[in-house]
Design a protein that fits this description.
Blueprint lengths: L2 H8 L13 E6 L3 H16 L3 E2 L8 E6 L4 H18 L6 E6 H5 L1 H6 L7 E3 L7 H7 L8 E2 L20 E5 L1 E2 L10 H5 L3 E2 L2 H13 L4 E5 L7 E2 L2 E2 H9 L6 E5 L8 H9 L6 E3 L7 H6 L6 H14 L4 E8 L6 H14 L3 E6 L13 H5 L6 H24 L5 E9 L8 E4 L5 E4 L9 E9 L4 E5 L3
Parallel strand pairs: 1-2, 1-3, 3-4, 4-5, 5-6, 7-10, 10-13, 14-15, 15-16, 19-21
Antiparallel strand pairs: 8-9, 11-12, 17-18, 17-20, 18-19, 20-21
Helix pairs in contact: 13-15
Length: about 475
Amino acid sequence: MSNIEKKIETQTNKISVNQDNKDKVFVETYGCQMNVYDTELVKRILTTANYEIVTQIESADVVMLNTCSVRDNANRKVYNRIHTIRQIKGKENTVKIGILGCMATNFRKNLLDDSKLKIDFIAGPDSYKQLPHLIAATGEQQEKPFDVTLSEFETYSDIYPMREKGVNAWIAVMRGCNNYCSFCVVPFTRGRERSRSPESVVEEVKQLVADGYKQVTLLGQNVNSYKSEENDFTELMRQVSDVEGMERIFFTSPHPKDFPTKLLTLMSERDNICNQVHMPLQAGNNRILDMMNRTYTKEEFLTLIEETRRIIPNVVITTDIIVGFPTETEEEFQDTMDVVKKAQFDSAFIFKYSERKAGKGAPSTLAAKRYPDDVCEEDKKDRVIRLNAIQSEITLQKNSAHIGETHTVLIEKKGSKKSNDAYVGRNQGNKLTIIADGDYQVGDIATVSITGATPHALMGKPKAV
């Protein structure tokens, strides 16, 4: 029996187990990869407590929505989904609905006090071990049960996630954030930074290899802030890279302010650490960056991009950008356009600024407190469209430059939008690659000749031996 298997066996001593429990639970996930990982933790915690996980709302006694609170649109989706769930369950309406994650922390009072929503219980990101108690307590008292306590210590390193079958596994190596970017609610919904021990991460990676996974992605709100005793993130990556059988390693998301050169050097030296870096820009104007509390300048960011490409010549660099931050002028937006042209990102996630005011009794973001949301919606939309147009051209050029190259592609599924016979996977730069034909199984690593490109994907065919 492996250490992980022993850990799973002993979890029943830590989680309240109802031997007679027959409740079926459906969990739906919104937002980032961290929420995907958290849902896998929740499923393990609940199955250990004798709950059954189901894949259809119709058969569920308990429905949980694991939520995101980064943008206002995410909140609206959850509110709409709650009403839809009530309709699906029909007149009997006996289903218990729980809200998990960031929205639970940020909008606890709003959710529990809204009589139309009829939420039954709430759990924040550090309270998932309490879920069996919270579910059991529904209906037993007038006040609806909740736990949104933010912990300084909880990392869930003693829980082995219940993962869906696939080729990639997520591992949260740290939780929380200390950066307090003025637009971001994460420090208020997920608490302060704390890191897992490297031993617990390496142990989990070894079990993933035993379970047949070939790729792992290390997660953190600011993953390069990882620190456990004398081990920083570069040392953690070194130890994970040493695990025999783990063929691909990604990580996300780092912060440009403390991206170490030694990590780039390690990436260039290790074949199983993939050549993709997500480097969030957020804005290309120094005044706006200062208002965002990003702690770097446009010039420093571009220098980091240059250094990254110098050390890893074939690196794939992606980014996040926010347009329409309070008081951003057209001229300042042009600075962001300028950085995009100079940085030549392989792809970018571009968003309109969304004012993140908190719910009753919860802290708002610094930007919501300090600055008026004074860039009109029309200007925000226009800036998104213009920036996406430029980035699409750059992405197509970047992708087209790969035509004629040979890539290794991890097969994720068979069948694309245009062909049931095609295979879909990702190369070592995490670029979507569609293979016209071949004979592969999910999880195979294929050697592929790149024959074409769009702004969204590479096209290829099996390389002749």
